[in-house]
Design brief:
single chain; alpha+beta; GIY-YIG endonuclease; 4 helices; 3 strands; globular
């Protein structure tokens, strides 16, 4: 029982690292950009695609068409939210995502994001 408590405590002490990532289709180089408060949750994004429930329908369609092996997950920028409030973290992640959307412009033939994501 002590080992279980020790593992739980270790998990709680792990530092969260958020950031911006892209999912890139290696067949046509289209990308999807998003931000998460904990980069460990990227496996959850992969699971959404594997089970056909991802929010981006165009990405989901091509994932189904090309298969999982045609896609790579890549971290573009990290952020350590240690000293920030939850609201500040959200604002920072939104700004980081906007920066990458403006830089890479993953819209239309270049990607899966919607230009409405820039607002």
């Amino acid at each position: 029982m002590d080992r279980r408590k020790e593992l739980i405590q270790q998990y709680k002490e792990l530092k969260k690292e958020g950031g911006v990532f892209q999912i890139r289709n290696t067949k046509n180089n289209k990308i999807f950009i998003d931000a998460v408060s904990d980069l460990k949750s990227l496996n959850g994004k992969r699971f959404q695609l594997q089970t056909g429930i991802h929010k981006c329908l165009s990405l989901q369609k091509e994932w189904n068409e090309y298969g999982e092996s045609a896609f790579v997950f890549e971290v573009l920028e990290t952020y350590s939210p240690e000293d920030e409030s939850v609201y500040s973290q959200k604002d920072i992640l939104i700004k980081l995502k906007q920066k990458w959307l403006n830089q890479l412009k993953p819209f239309g033939e270049r990607g899966y994001n919607d230009e409405g994501d820039l607002k």
